[in-house]
Amino acid sequence: xxxxxxxxxxxxxxxxxxxxxxxxxxxxxxxxxxxxxxxxxxxxxxxxxxxxxxxxxxxxxxxxxxxxxxxxxxxxxxxxxxxxxxxxxxxxxxxxxxxxxxxxxxxxxxxxxxxxxxxxxxxxxxxxxxxxxxxxxxxxxxxxxxxxxxxxxxxxxxxxxxxxxxxxxxxxxxxxxxxxxxxxxxxxxxxxxxxxxxxxxxxxxxxxxxxxxxxxxxxxxxxxxxxxxxxxxxxxxxxxxxxxxxxxxxxxxxxxxxxxxxxxxxxxxxxxxxxxxxxxxxxxxxxxxx
Length: 290
Prior knowledge:
By secondary structure, the chain is of the alpha+beta class. Helices cover about 20% and strands about 40% of the residues.
């Protein structure tokens, strides 16, 4: 197998790097994750290993589904439970009022990038400036919220909401919590976060690898081949001469009525990814097979 794809469960308290490093050490292979989860968060992490690490960006671009718990009346500098409290505001907020405010975030929106984030400002992560007490201009990014549902609401001195969010890659759930809180007039922060899905990779199918002894054979048995992991990309099958040309960096003219990324096969053997250009040429982009 030219590397593989793993759906791993990250528990609260561990970093994404620590989980990825554990996988790499057990397999004795290079490994890379396809989207960071903060230490206080838990849930699905898709990890590529071996030659499949070259495909990480494709998995990183998949939409994400999160279950989040948000507490109103308190604002923190990080927009989440790990930060310092910067403001406390008491007031009443009903479920109806909260839901009406929440649902306006559905669709394509501009979202504030949190001060404590890895997003760069003049070549440095924004969190470095934030740790030094420096205030940067507000940075916005375009994201899309495909589905947004209020699952539960607890009224009281500090109202709490649980929401389910399906969103584009790069969406900050803590920014959603912060902005929702500001709209309410009470402020809010992200209290807990669980990633339920990355594309079709679900929490129910994820493997726990931190609370038990596991070995290389176990991880190999739970890995799926790279082409199977790229379930959303169309397949094309090449003749022997075409495959030879592709493997040597050449191109072939495509008889397929499609453009964009494709999985290339020689018989049943997965060669890698190619791209059909506007002129109909199929060119190799990432070759994994020999």
